[in-house]
Batch of 2 targets.
Target 1
Amino acid sequence: MWGCGGRRRRRLGALLLVLLLGGLLLRRFNWSSLVPLQLRGRTLGLQAENSEFHLEGMPFRIFGGSMHYFRVPKEYWRDRMVKMKTCGLNTLTTYVPWNLHEAANGKFDFSGNLDLEAFLTLAAEVGLWVILRPGPYICSEWDLGGLPSWLLQDPEMQLRTTYKGFTEAVDAYFDHLMTRVVPLQYKKGGPIIAVQVENEYGSYAKDPQYLTYIKMALLDRGIVELLMTSDNRDGLSSGYVEGALATVNFQKMDYSFLDFLDKVQQNKPKMVMEYWTGWFDSWGGPHNIFDADDMVNSVAEVLKTGASINLYMFHGGTNFGFMNGALDSDEYKPDVTSYDYDAVLTEAGDYTSKFFKLRQLFTKIIGQPLPPPPMITAKASYGAVLLPQYVSLWEVLPSIVEPVKSEFPVNMENLPVNDGNGQAYGYTLYETVISGGGQLHSRDHVRDRAQVFVNTVFVGFLDYNTVELSIPEGQGFRQLRLLVENCGRVNYGLMLNEQRKGLIGDVFLNKTPLRNFKIYSLEMKPGFMESLRGVTAWSTIPDYAVGPAFFRGNLQVQYLPRDTFLKLEGWEKGVVFVNGENLGRYWKIGPQETLYLPATWLQPGNNEIIVFEERTAGRIIQSVDMPYLGRTHYLD
Ligand code: GLA
């Protein structure tokens, strides 16, 4: 008994000792270690309270690079981010394209390649901070600067202003978007250290209330990180909004830009939000190149001043589908499919000399060696692909597209298709019956380019420069057809409200307006391509095959697919679809001659290629292992 009682007392004594020691230890215990690692000490975030940035109280410099998830296949995001990291960058910046996330009013898509949260989480995993640029307008050589085309259904629409029709749509979109973004902010444990308010509003500046409205729209929905604005030369003085850090955009080092920042906001850190590493290309122009040494020297100069920087673009990627934007200063100029941008990585994610020069520069500044860059990825040349099957647009149309009947021409955004959202991109065919020939006059109502046919006979083009055409006389009733292409909406400048496409007003034959149309919406979305695949009219290509028509063939891939480039020599103008996906436009006027085809769009075995050619078909396309983006032009 005693022995037993003694043991019990000893055990009790030991227990008390443990509790006592435990209590002492607990008092000294650092509770913060129990808080998930990513939340520990995250109270201050990125601050811009004096001449340098602080992140969580420690001096911090932003070495950023832009890469847009919507321009790069999801499977390649990590590779590109690791390359960013091994170049010496610590921050990734991305835009958010409203027009892809809300293609139909009220229906949101954040899946697959649009999985913004997966992209941001991956950035955090790779060890990159994020500056998010949610727009709603993003510019970026992207159709309508990222705004959905259904906004233009309202004839009174005033984009990028506090016009009610616009702000209501922004509110509904931000309500949805911000619930995804808010938990990924720095203070919540995520990678987002700053959020940009709109984009270069100073160069648009139509409404003095607008920037404040967007700023409040962010704050009201729980954005707590540092706010920034970003402006180019044209907008420096009017792009500032109280409560957001102003930053500038340029290519050649210009001290006056940085001095300007000191004037609008004293004693704040300086940042070049868009240091343009290259430039984009327009159809009909050259392929722009910005010399690697000039670029690195300018970056070095910026960094010497102590400023932070973001390289726009670090990796440009591709304007897949019909998503390219356009410029219209004195002339309408649509952008090409490639967004290679002569950036730090190529369109296909490969290293350029800019990468290695920058890596050297950042290694010196950081003062320690950077991790080794990932291996290069081999590209494939699959050789010639025959396209032996053919079907003309005229043959397939009646069976796969239900036309809209209208007395008057209707612009594509206002067509009663896509559950009331109108047609956003692609081609629209306007068909009417005529009983004679004469002068056809567009009164500049064609947006952007129309092929004109009498029945199936090509008569000519109408566009911004050509507004008049002779229609030959003929017997009886004939069909007059205008196949109008939306070549891409303007993404920069004061013309945003004028971006309705198709026929935007009357077209006249001998001064009489055309009436009673059948209008076919040809957006060529996956559903359309699926129906096209099933039509019985496919036949062997005739000796003389002209567009508008579809041409079909197979790209054979043995083993694991690799990235390749499709060369469209001999083809005139059109679009390429691979396994039903729209790879983008080609046009013989160049500069771009090859389309980037990522391996992720291919599968081992057969891969269906369909080309929609407007005019002259080339019969084969070549799969090559090198891009050719055209005759180069060095930017001064
Ligand atoms: C501006 C815009 C970007 C992009 C560049 C040019 O700086 O903010 O979105 O359009 O010009 O590439």
Target 2
Amino acid sequence: MNHPKLINQILEYGTAGFRTKANLLDHVLYRVGILAVLRSKFKKATIGVMITASHNPVEDNGVKLVDPHGEMLAPDWEVIATDLANVSDDRLSSLIDSIVHKWEIDITSPSNVIFARDTRPSGSSLSASLLDGIKSLNSSFTDFEILTTPQLHYLVHSINTNGLYGTPTPEGYIKKLSAAFNQLHSNIKHETTPFEKPRIFVDGANGVGALQVKKMSKEIESYITIEVFNDATSGKLNHMCGADYVKIQQKAPEGVPIIPYERCASFDGDADRVIYYYFDSDKRFHMLDGDKIAALIAGCISDFCVQAGLSVDLGVVQTAYANGASTKYLTDTKMLKVACVCTGVKHLHSKAQEFEVGVYFEANGHGTVLYKASVKQKLNQVIQNGSSDDSCRVAAENLLNFIDLTNETVGDSISDMLLVETALKIKAIDVLMWDAMYVDLPNRQLKTQVCDRSIFVLTNAEQQVVKPESIQPKIDELVSKYKDGRSFVRPSGTEDVVRIYAEADTQMNADWLAYEVSLVVYELGGGCGKKPTPPHDGKLLTIA
Ligand code: 16G
Ligand code: ZN
């Protein structure tokens, strides 16, 4: 038996695919190889497999499938993935037969699987296990070796559109984005520009994003200087650095120089998230998260549309983690439609598809923009009708390049960063002016352990607890005690914890509200392990 299943622990295909300690994944990768081939035969298209555990520690690894248009695996196949990963060795082949039968898969039809991995040391042997699974069904395949998650999503989509979305190679990705960036930046002319050639410090989380952004940087160096830190040459992946560290700890990563007002961006371990920040003259840290990125980008697209004389249905999709101040800014100041959905990229992505232009971002920095074909058609129409010095035509050209600079398949640290840099240049604003768009409400995230997090049933885009029934009235009561208070709790999809989010008028109040709510979860939700401890003496809570 190839790649026998040596563990009894049940692994679930969750929001981020399978993710656990790397040494538990050998049989899972083999079976995912089989699953990807079946999916490819079923969809009659190329399927992608990405081996990564994103922002998790280097000892972990994970794997997820990429569907034909570069989107996440369809939910009904997530269940199949879970079944395949957990079935005993002796029942594996009969389960495969039953999947083939149930989904009427023509096992003789051609299939193609492409795959890549992040920089984790466990990646190459897990790739080999995956490949054994793919080969067991005689499928064709390409191993793209070390790439970012969004690069793999791009490749799947461009292969399945016969190159219409972009040349289906890693170099094609760099070329498409860099060409759009260079075109935009050569078009933008301001009488007074705050900085002629911007510079940005990138924290590559000691991962694959660092390697790829260096390649990108060479292609666009006429218009921007990108200096990469935590570049995987010596430091440990995601250790004291990266987008998740910066967002959760609300502090700067190690390894990035502190220079006042210098723009800095942190990627996560597989480069599908980005968080911005800067230091003021007192070396105080200021963060610009996914909400602020969404506000900047949505505002820029909306301006382009107005300048091009186009009316489009533009919406912004957030989750409950979006800072209340950002939602207020988007709706009240920018007069944009805002939708709130459950956490997880697939929920944001599918909601964003309902708009002609759907901007979606999680506060943690994962997000992108989706454009309906109708928008691209309207823009081409404006270009055809306009004269060369026509400002409508120029705006339409700029927006088309902005679309080309976007990785529409999934959130992408590199693409998102270049969109931000472009939006700042177009608006002729610096990081301070961007930050001043609105002021974040102080907030705090905590997590607490319960014996069984599956007892939590939520509603209203995960903002209210339905079960256990006693919890929500308590949360409502606590929230009402705090000015600008808001709080919700949800079981994590990636860790064995319940997460608590709270915001309020001051950091101290946000910390106390988060603490009080975590105590409610612990006491009424079957807490186990360490009981939450209160924030002491006006000091901030230390986050586990
Ligand atoms: C996964 C999700 C991410 C979400 C996070 C929440 C994808 C590709 N990733 O990383 O969108 O923010 O889970 O984690 O969907 P949690 O359930 O542990 O809070
Ligand atoms: Zn990631």
